[in-house]
Design a protein that fits this description.
Strand order of the largest sheet: 6-8-7-9-10-11-12-14-13
Number of strands: 14
Number of helices: 17
Radius of gyration: 22 Å
Distance between the termini: 34 Å
CATH superfamily of the largest domain: Winged helix-like DNA-binding domain superfamily/Winged helix DNA-binding domain
Number of domains: 2
Shape: globular
CATH topology of the largest domain: Arc Repressor Mutant, subunit A
Strand content: 15-25%
Structural class: alpha/beta
Helix content: 40-55%
């Protein structure tokens, strides 16, 4: 088992200050395991809403939950969305003695009741798969190939990991999506997801994807929103400031887990990955996810102009803006595009992340940094 101290600390702080804490993330990313670890030090009542006996226990939820004290955990809350209204009533009662930890596999955008019914009463924590700080720096190649889902990352063999990921994709499409009340044929969504994998790291173009699948722009946009809302896809938004240049205004699309990306691209092992034409895009998405999980900025963007200048990731931190450029190259070169971004965006520092061994400065505000040292971001600029 891999320890996850950051999330345990977040859970401790959130349950102390908020009557309801929502731990959200994709299926099988470790939410239930983390909740059990956290619950070991508390008086806990646990409900698994995928369990029929627990569903029957909650046939009169206001009476059952209202009589409890201590920490109450409701796992897979999206299965019984009617509980959100009950929770709002219970936590507003002066005599309430319980704190609620709800676990869900969909974002508040999809679980609309959470945002509407629990406003001002709930604190959201988003749990991802393992990151580099949890798996350890020596495991960065395995984490890249297999992804961060615990069972995929910790499998005994590459074949075991690949089979688990394929099973996850099938179950997600055939069971998890319908559980959210979304009626899209699994075959159609699988085709779209696979096509999206081939567009990984590119700017979103609904018309192009729609034509490829014989679907309308509106339909492929709805498919994208579903995969984003279930934590499968990240839509990285463009930098929004008007700089007097023609900027790209559509989001860039990344599959958030590199292991699922490789499964959808039919990449079974390291050898196949190193020879695949999407290796650069795969590396870019993997590094961006690791940086975001390390720094955890409040906002994140990419920047690109129609003249060709671009930066893969821009984020604010303590009132200053920083940039990250990702290169799958043992000797990355500093480009005019990087210098343009440094000047035009007023970046405090720009790092070029690469798969090499050594960190070194290139110019006053530009440094090359190996992936294994990204835990130093953004303090490395100080």
């Amino acid at each position: 088992m891999i320890n996850r101290p950051y999330y345990l600390k977040r859970l401790s702080e959130a349950t102390r200050r908020s009557p309801i804490t929502a731990l959200l993330g994709p299926r099988q990313c470790g939410k239930t395991t983390l909740a059990h670890l956290f619950s070991a030090e508390h008086q806990v009542t646990f409900f698994d809403l995928e369990s029929f006996p627990d569903q029957r226990r909650l046939e009169n939820p206001e009476m059952v939950l209202g009589s409890l004290e201590g920490l109450v955990v409701l796992d897979e809350i999206q299965i019984m969305p009617e509980l959100f209204q009950v929770l709002r009533v219970l936590v507003d009662r002066p005599e309430n003695q319980a704190r609620f930890l709800i676990l869900g596999s969909a974002s508040p955008t999809i679980i609309k009741s959470a945002a509407e019914s629990l406003a001002g009463r709930v604190e959201f924590i988003e749990l991802s798969g393992f990151d580099l700080s949890e798996s350890g720096e020596p495991a960065w190649e395995s984490l890249w190939l297999r992804g961060g889902f615990p069972r995929a990352h910790l499998s005994n063999t590459e074949e075991d990991s690949l089979i688990w990921r394929e099973g996850f994709i099938r179950t997600f499409l055939e069971r998890d999506i319908p559980q959210l009340g979304i009626n899209i044929p699994a075959i159609a969504m699988r085709r779209f997801w696979t096509m999206l994998a081939h567009y990984h790291g590119q700017t979103w173009n609904a018309s192009e994807l729609g034509r490829s699948m014989g679907l309308s722009d509106k339909t492929v946009r709805s498919y994208l929103d579903i995969l984003s809302g279930t934590f499968m896809v990240r839509q990285l938004q463009p930098w929004f400031e008007n700089l007097g240049k023609r900027q790209v205004k559509s989001p860039k699309i990344y599959l958030r887990d590199s292991g699922l990306l490789h499964s959808l691209l039919d990449i079974p092992d390291r050898h196949a990955l190193l020879g695949h034409p999407k290796i650069g895009a795969s590396w870019e998405g993997y590094v961006i996810e690791q940086v975001l999980q390390t720094v955890r900025p409040s906002q994140a963007y990419f920047w690109a102009t129609h003249s060709g200048a671009e930066v893969d990731l821009v984020f604010p931190y303590q009132g200053k803006n920083f940039g990250v450029e990702v290169k799958f190259n043992e000797a990355p070169k500093i480009t005019a595009s990087m210098r343009t971004a440094l000047s035009d965006l007023g970046l405090e520092h720009l790092w070029v992340i690469y798969p090499g061994q050594y960190a070194y400065p290139v110019e006053e505000r530009i440094s090359v940094m190996p992936l294994k040292e990204i835990t130093r971001l953004p303090l490395a600029a100080v």
